[in-house]
């Protein structure tokens, strides 16, 4: 005889609750947060849209704030314009000097000197850095002198170069080359020393010779470090040019600084410094752009 067991009240309520639970269709995604994840994703996308422009405008806002502090600080403190001119006077002097061709003429001399010195220093620094990275004996012989060279101020070297090379472009370019040499050589050495040995050994096993290894493996992998060193060196070459011009007297923006200081023309002094800052920034941006183009080209070839 079959015995039928009736469900109790508790099991009946559980069945009723189970019947009310929606069943997800095949392929549908389950969001336990009730749309919270989707809303969070939208907020993240909106934040990313604003983050780019704000990052680009942050230096502009910071510069404007510093100029306002400078302007009102000079006006309220009563400092003489012969000592610290207001930004408005500096910009006026800068515009007048640009229109008269004074700053462009002197800036062209500084630019030629810095680029010439950068080219000489880079041509010497790149193979020297590679040789130091690949030859331990050469590294032990040269690295102490490279470190000691940074203890000698460039201002002390400028008169010696003038005595050895005379006046003109050559001593200033030589001073720029000395300043450019150290960061370019150090970054080149670092780039080649930090290469993955397993990759190099695998290339040698495949039959790659020294020059093929350098062209296709070592140079592309060390390229970011080399280019960053050259970018920093290009900016420092402007410093070397100005130091050399201080010694030579009346050439380039360094010479213009000497002339303006001698005439107690403080606005022109600050305007010349502004021109130097703009030149260094432009060279840095150009080097950064060329660096990105070269790395993108190497990535496409790889």
Question: Keywords, please?
Answer:
single chain; 302 residues; mainly alpha; MetI-like fold; 11 helices; disordered N terminus
Could you give the topology of this structure?
Blueprint: H1 9-20, H2 36-77, H3 87-100, H4 102-134, H5 136-149, H6 154-165, H7 169-193, H8 197-205, H9 210-248, H10 252-262, H11 266-301
Helical coverage, percent range: over 70%
Largest sheet: none
**Multimeric status of the protein:** single chain
Order of helices and strands: HHHHHHHHHHH
Structural class: mainly alpha
The outline comes out as: flat
CATH superfamily of the domain at 105-260: MetI-like
**Which ranges are low-confidence, i.e. pLDDT below 50, for 5 or more consecutive residues?**
1-31
What share of residues are in beta strands? under 5%
Please tally the β strands and state the result: 0
